[in-house]
Amino acid sequence: MLQDDASQRLAAVQTAILRAAKIAGRKPDAITLIAVSKTHDAATIQPLIAAGQRVFGENRVQEAQGKWPQLREATPGIELHLVGQLQSNKAEEAVALFDAIHGVDRSSLVTALAKAMDKADRRPACFLQVNIGDEPQKGGCPVADVPALLAEARAANLPVAGLMCVPPAGLEAAPYFALLAKLAGEQGLDGLSMGMSSDFETAVTLGATHVRVGTALFGDRA
Ligand SMILES: *Cc1c(COP(=O)(O)O)cnc(C)c1O
Question: Signal peptide location in the record (predicted)?
């Protein structure tokens, strides 16, 4: 990716976030842009770092291990979020590498993460992923089970920052974002990880604190 392209795409997304925040009467600094760099190599990511972006997201532990240690060495202050599904047997590696984990969606993973965090004495922020459309086959905790999973996560000393969702494909996202915001409010959680390239502005107007944007920053994935 050319440096100019990277700078322009980043500026466009930042401007859209500012505009949506203004419409909603929200403070722009309450919204973190996570640049989702999955499938893209270091050479593609570098221009975005040069343009000033510091918060990135990946969806596979192994892929992230392959490129982020070097990128982080070159630029201090990078924050790395795991935005995808996490297998319990990768919990230790995830805790070692990531600053936040967005896919916490079941008891077994809560247990594995708690164990890994105790062992590493490192506690990345956790977002509980909610299957907000209650879709079969989709990752995330069923809506009705959120209070129980949250109680387990808190009892296990996971630093729960908020809730995360990916709304059903092909449907208007706004009602699902509103539902996630309501659930978070009921549970006393401030963090809302919601909104991707196609709908992050809507997510910001509905309270997103973390938007996860890939394509709008990096272009299409191969
Ligand atoms: C890939 C991915 C994104 C980014 O999607 P874009 O549509 O490319 O912005 C966001 N969240 C999750 C969980 C993802 O896997």
Answer: none
